[in-house]
Amino acid sequence: MNNQFEKACKFAIECHSNQKRKDGSIYILHPFEVVTIASTMTKDEDVLIAAILHDTVEDANIKIEEIINLFGKRVGYLVDYETEPKYPNLSKEESWMLRKQGALKKLELSNDISFKILYLSDKLANIRSLYRDYKLNGISSFDKFNIKDIDIQSWYYYSILERLKELQSFEAYKEFEDKLNYIFKETKVRNNEKNNNHI
Question: Distance between CA 51 and CA 37 in Å, rounded?
Answer without folding.
Answer: 9
